[in-house]
Design a protein that fits this description.
The complex is a heterodimer of chains A (about 775) and B (about 325). With about 775 residues, chain A is an alpha/beta fold. Chain A is built from 28 helices and 31 strands. In chain A, the strands form eight sheets. In chain A, strands 13-14-15-12-11-16-17-31-25-24 form a ten-stranded mixed β-sheet, sandwiched between helices. Chain B has an eight-stranded parallel β-sheet with strand order 7-6-5-4-3-2-1-8. In chain B, helix 2 packs across helix 12. Classes of the chains: A alpha/beta (about 775), B alpha/beta (about 325).
Chain lengths: ~775, ~325
């Protein structure tokens, strides 16, 4: 070590290593780990070694979970579930509180272990991951106490299968286990193969506090183990990880009735306006893309900078980047640690090369990188949207920098992505910042800050960043389920498009039902119609809609974007007007229903439903979350935008209204496929819509073969959410086919529509956007 | 160990140009967040920590600014400035000839301080211009500077008229500081912004920039008499202003936080701020001073612990 005199010349920081003695001793004592099933560790089996990514040193052996291991864990969880769910909330609260307290007592141990296993800097594990994980358990101890009161009529799912990534091992564990246990579920957790050790230490802590057997189970393994867990007899899957795996999980669980939340990848915009505090924004970039080596799903990885300040900002950013310290993760002065695995480093390098090859200029600080699995921080200049590094998640410490001219262009660039996880907006003009926050498609928006987390605030994405929220009330809701309504039989339809002379229509003036697209009645692209019959008599012909009609309807719905921006009051007025006009024609609608064997009372129920959602239109409020001091953290329910709604065959009017009205009340525009066997109840409605000031394109109606049309909707990448009522095969199809853009789906069998209204529908019609607004002068 | 103050050209100032600061954005929560994270991102251990504490001593303006100061009191302080650490500590650190950066006193105490420091090479800094409130006629304030310089002060810590900042009267502020700079002659001028009175970080930035444009050699946070004195967010804002000024003009301006810093930990925090935001050059006494009185005692105790391995008592160290 140099002398004081020498250091006074250089004024270097010198080494400041965190000691690892306690953890080394623990690892040496354990040697190899089995799984934690039913309150005890199994005998270690075949598996692999978990290594320290910074040094390549072996830390401990872990066991590869087989399908049998997974089954045993699920069985233990299943066995423990009824008793755990039946505990009074207060009793579960005490357990969660005990976990929180013990995590706190083992905080430094877990921090060091996390650093060894993952390669992240000790500062981050110590000051961010562990405090957040502990906070999560405290917060959810509170939810356990309150769940019965605050979520009446809801029940836990049962057994939750949780699959978590390697970037925040203990924190993601907390995000899954805390709400699951608080809600009364039991858990089987599969940690990432790269970073299983803190989960195993957590299992020991569960044993240490005497948590009832089977409530928490940990099965280690690789992708196959995760797939086995997804396929196993669990009731809900909670997954955080890549969009690719998320898609596979969506496909695997399709039609299984397993509840699913996915927190996936991102390519989040970081927007710097000319009036921003540029030094603060530069520091924001440090916390965005140079946090956890850039291996962060919500990392601000696309820097969008106003042309007016781009040069200045780039200079400041380059200077700041040069002061980042890359190296030993255990050193308290390290900003950027080791990349988690050789495979990940190779992936990053491959993308960096591709970015340069496509014309972007990579700037990185001068100087040597330490030996080993390290990646220099960097920024791609001139990264155009056509460059792969603009669209591909690098998951490394390198961002792209692109300039914009106007706020409109900033929004356009920000939304030019398949993802929608987070956004960070930098401006001293709050009016501007909030305007951008409203327009950007992201589940989390940070104003003048980035990567701020709290257990009370929802976190989760839109678009291909997944669905569901973690944290806060909305996070708890994802671990509870509503009672399943009793299934009702469906009324099948016949789509024959040839003349049906044997079932003549009643005499009168011929009425022509058409499709309703963009506020206009249009003929189907196919040019065919099919007969709607009742008891052998033809009631009328309905257009036989096809893919192209769906395409046109979706386009029309996109053009009606203004509907999502009008006030709730405006939407309520339209809904009331629909009720009024329907009431004026009630007799006609009732006669139509009666003549086709349906219940005429559907008309009055539909009028009431329109009133119901008119009432809700300006009352489905968001919330202000109790997170950090001097921060207004707002949770805003936002419409999805364009939704598909595939209606039940039975209850042709009320079923349609029960789905379409809540969707549009929340500001969505809808492409509806009405009852296939009796679409005329819905097509009759377009005259009501036309006279009720409903803007064209807000509700579009495409009649025809239900599942064919549903499949087109499910596969449509510009449809954000899809509701489907129908048989098991159709439900499975919809969930499978929706994986293309990972749209949120809500599927159910036909039910009694009499009481089918309220918050449950509105919740499904919206997604929470959490906006963090700091204040302070 | 040199306590040089002239290793780079002085800041000559530039004409007043409000476009450099009038539209500046300083986000307070972000500044506070950055300030908070500075000391968690960097850590100093063992010999490095000891060296950095020694550096704090050599950058220290050891200060007494009290109504009951007497020449004898000042002489005691000067004795401590000559020998800030007990001999066994200094020896244990392998150092010799360590002194503080300067002594800082009221104008009427300058003569006593100069006499007490004779032959030590330690400069005497004097506050002036109606310290601490500065609400005296300008002619008297300038006369006070001239008096202090005549008494032998090598550095003058002036206070600005806070009203000029609060009223946005940049020309008046610029003219006043430029006149003070002229009155200082060869003495280096530190402009005290009294940031506790300015309140907002934007005000702090704007006042910093005007002071530098008017030719301040150092910008300094506080008199030590405001309700809130040196804080890390305020200091961060000032060093960023200083960095911006340097990038525009090429002139180097020093920074002096003062008041409220009491512990060895504070000494490390402010040095980390300097290194992270400006670089190692700003860890030398010509560009960095810590205005403090009680901080030295804590540093001495920490350094004794470093040398002996035993926790120390201030009663065994010479008081300042």
């Amino acid at each position: 070590m140099p002398s004081v005199k020498e250091i006074l010349e250089t004024m270097d920081y010198g080494p400041a290593p965190e000691a690892t003695g306690e953890v080394d001793g623990w690892l040496a004592a354990r040697g190899r780990f089995g799984h934690f099933i039913d309150g005890a560790f199994t005998k270690p089996g075949a598996g692999w070694d978990s290594v320290n990514p910074a040094t390549g040193a072996t830390l401990a052996g872990v066991t590869r979970g087989t399908a049998e291991d997974v089954a045993a864990a699920v069985k233990a969880a299943r066995k423990a579930a009824p008793k755990w769910a039946a505990l009074p909330g207060h009793a579960r609260a005490k357990w969660l509180y005990a976990i929180a307290r013990h995590l706190q007592k083992r905080e430094r141990f877990l921090s060091v272990l996390e650093v060894l296993d993952n390669g992240k800097p000790i500062r981050e594990a110590r000051d961010i991951d562990l405090p957040l994980a502990i906070r999560h358990f405290y917060h959810h101890a509170g939810w356990a106490e309150l769940v019965a009161e605050e979520f009446p009529c809801l029940a836990p799912h049962g057994v939750v299968g949780a699959v978590i990534p390697w970037n925040f091992p203990i924190l993601m564990l907390a995000w899954k286990i805390a709400p699951a246990l608080a809600a009364g579920n039991t858990v089987v957790l599969k940690p990432a193969e790269e970073t299983p050790l803190t989960a195993l230490a957590f299992a020991e802590i569960c044993a240490e506090i005497g948590l009832p057997k089977g409530v928490v189970n940990v099965v280690t393994g690789e992708g196959e183990t995760g797939a086995a867990l997804v396929a196993s007899d669990v009731d809900k899957i909670a997954f955080t990880g890549s969009t690719e795996i998320g898609r596979a999980i969506r496909t695997a669980t399709a039609g299984s009735a397993k509840a699913l939340t996915l927190e996936l990848g991102g390519k989040s915009p970081f927007v710097v306006f000319a009036d921003a505090d540029l030094d603060a924004a530069v520091e924001g970039v440090v916390d965005a893309i140079w946090f956890n080596q850039g291996q962060v799903c919500c990392a601000g990885s696309r820097l969008l900078v106003a042309e007016a300040v781009a040069e200045r900002f780039t200079e400041k950013l380059t200077a700041r980047m040069a002061r980042l310290r890359v190296g030993d993760p255990l050193d308290k002065c390290t900003d950027i640690g080791a990349i988690v695995s050789p495979a990940q480093l190779a992936r990053i390098r491959g993308l960096l090369a591709a970015g340069e090859a496509a014309g972007a200029r990579l700037i990185t600080p001068e100087g040597q990188l330490p030996e080993g699995q390290f990646c220099a921080p960097g920024v791609f200049l001139n990264a155009e949207p056509a460059n792969p590094v603009w669209s591909e998640e690098i998951f490394g410490p390198v961002a792209t920098l692109t300039t914009f001219r106007t706020p409109d262009e900033a929004v356009e660039l920000a939304n030019n992505t398949r993802y929608g996880l987070s956004a960070s907006i930098w401006s001293e003009n709050l009016t501007l910042a909030m305007d951008i926050a409203a327009q950007v498609r992201a589940g989390v928006v940070w104003i003048n800050q980035t990567n701020t987390f709290d257990a009370a605030a929802g976190f989760g994405g839109m678009r291909e960043s997944g669905f569901g929220r973690e944290g806060g009330r909305e996070g708890m809701a994802a671990y509870l389920r509503a009672p399943t309504p009793k299934e009702r039989p469906e009324a099948p339809a016949d789509f024959s498009a040839v003349p049906q002379p044997e079932t003549p229509a009643a005499v009168g003036i011929d009425r022509t039902a058409k499709l309703y697209i963009g506020g206009k009645q249009t003929r189907p692209d196919s040019g065919y119609s099919y007969a709607i019959t009742h008891k052998g008599a033809e009631i009328g012909l309905a257009p036989l809609g096809s893919r192209k009609d769906i395409r046109n309807a979706v386009e029309a719905a996109h053009k009606a974007a203004g509907w999502s921006r009008v006030t709730g009051h405006n939407r309520a007025q339209v809904l009331y007007y629909i009720a009024e006009n329907l009431a004026a024609r009630a007799a006609e609608f009732e006669a139509r229903l009666k003549s086709t064997g349906h219940d005429a009372s559907e008309v009055q129920a539909t009028i009431a439903r329109a009133f119901h959602y008119a009432a809700w239109a300006d009352k489905f409020d968001g919330a202000v979350k109790s997170t950090k001091t001097r921060n207004v953290t707002v949770a805003m329910p936002e419409p999805f935008g364009v939704m598909g709604v595939v209606c039940p065959d039975a209850a042709p009017l009320l079923g349609f209204a029960s789905l379409v009205l809540p969707a549009i009340a929340m500001g969505n525009r809808v492409v509806a496929v009405p009852s296939a066997s009796m679409p005329l109840a819905a097509t009759d409605l377009y005259q009501v819509f036309d006279t009720s000031d409903l803007p064209g394109g807000v509700v579009n109606i495409v009649t025809g073969p239900k599942d064919e049309l549903a499949e087109t909707l499910a596969q449509h990448d510009d449809v954000a959410a899809l509701w489907y009522v129908g048989g098991a095969a159709g439900r499975a199809m919809v969930e499978t086919e929706s994986t293309g853009n990972l749209k949120a789906t809500w599927t159910m069998p036909n039910r009694d529509w009499a009481g089918a209204q309220g918050r449950a529908f509105l919740t499904q019609a919206t997604q929470i956007k959490t906006i963090w607004v700091p204040y302070g002068e | 160990m040199a306590s040089s103050t002239d290793i780079h050209p002085r800041n000559p100032g530039v004409p007043l140009d409000p476009s450099w600061f009038e539209r500046i954005a300083v986000n307070t929560p972000a500044a506070e967040a950055r300030a908070a994270i500075l000391t968690t991102r960097r850590s100093l251990k063992k010999t490095y920590q000891a060296a950095w504490l020694v550096n704090a001593v050599r950058c220290m303006d050891l200060t007494t600014l009290a109504g009951d100061d007497t020449p004898a009191r000042v002489a005691r302080l000067c004795a401590k400035a000559r020998a800030p650490l007990a001999p066994h500590i200094l020896e244990g650190l392998g150092l010799e000839g360590l002194t503080t950066g300067a002594i800082c006193v009221y104008p009427t105490m300058v003569g006593a301080a100069v006499r007490a420091l004779e032959g030590s090479g330690i400069p005497v800094a004097s506050v002036a211009t109606g310290f601490p409130a500065g609400l005296m006629p300008l002619s008297l304030r300038l006369a006070e500077i001239e008096y202090a310089v005549a008494e032998g002060a090598a550095e003058i810590d002036i206070v600005i008229t806070r009203a000029h900042v609060l009223q946005g009267n940049w020309q008046a502020l610029y003219d006043e500081i430029a006149a003070m700079r002229a009155a200082c002659g060869p003495a280096h001028m530190k402009a005290i912004l009294a940031t506790g009175d300015l309140k907002t970080l934007r005000n702090v930035y704007m006042a910093s920039m005007v002071a530098m444009q008017a030719g301040a050699d150092f910008i300094k946070t506080s008199t030590g008499k405001e309700g809130v004195n040196a804080t890390l967010p305020v200091s961060l804002t000032m060093v960023r202003a200083l960095r911006d000024y340097g990038e525009r003009t090429g002139h180097r301006v020093g920074f002096k936080p003062a008041g409220g810093m009491k512990s060895a930990k504070d000494a490390l925090a402010w040095q980390i701020l300097m290194k992270e935001e400006l670089g190692t050059d700003w860890l030398r006494p010509d560009l960095f001073r810590l205005g403090a009185s009680s901080m030295l005692a804590d540093i001495e105790r920490q350094l004794e612990h470093h040398v002996t391995g035993r926790y120390a008592s201030s009663t065994r160290h010479a008081m300042a």
